[in-house]
Amino acid sequence: MTVVFWFAILIFAVAIAVGLVRVASAKDLGSRAIIGDLVYFAAIGILTLIAMLTNVSIMLDVIFLSSLLGILATIALSRILTRGHR
Amino acid sequence: MTTVVDVFIAFCVLSGSLLVLVSALAMFRAKDALSRINVFSPATGLGMPLVVLGCYAYTLQQEGFSVYRLLIAIIAFFSLIIVSSIASNTLSRSTLLSGSPVHRYTRPNRLAYAQGEDPREDGAAGGRGFGDAQGETQGDAQDDDDPTAS
Description:
The complex is a heterodimer of chains A (86) and B (150). With 86 residues, chain A is mostly helical.
């Protein structure tokens, strides 16, 4: 089970690395915003898997709160994209 | 029985993380920002709920049943789907409003063409060229990273 969790952490880390490479090579701002969202969710996945590895009892609370608050960064980035215009 | 639960947890966690990785790789294949927002939805719509499911099964196996954890898992499962959909909708709307270019191979492209005016849908028989209905949001996205793809 530990091997599976470490492997999943590795896959998430590769996803974050690929996303950061794409951020560096992307030209338009919308792509960067959505890849920022991707990095956020992959980081949540890594955090959940670490909590499962170390048997912390708050693993579901972490993913609960972060899934509810994950909209805030995206909404803020979209407001920045339109310069405050709705 | 515990082996079955272990295999289920491993399947959920691994397939969820693989979906996130595939979405990250698909960012290279998509041509414009709208397509990238579109191909991101498997990660949050299926990948992360699978991770939540695996996490809840692991909690169920380790610590037993609890109404609080079941409630939190259900809320997290559905809020990941709903919240990420709303966020993607808002982000794509603001991306289009801010004048981000839409690639000409993004189809169906009803945001840039009015209905019935899409030259690819009615076979370009009406003599409408590509340059007709191009507004501010329509134009060739820069193929900065993938010049070989057609």
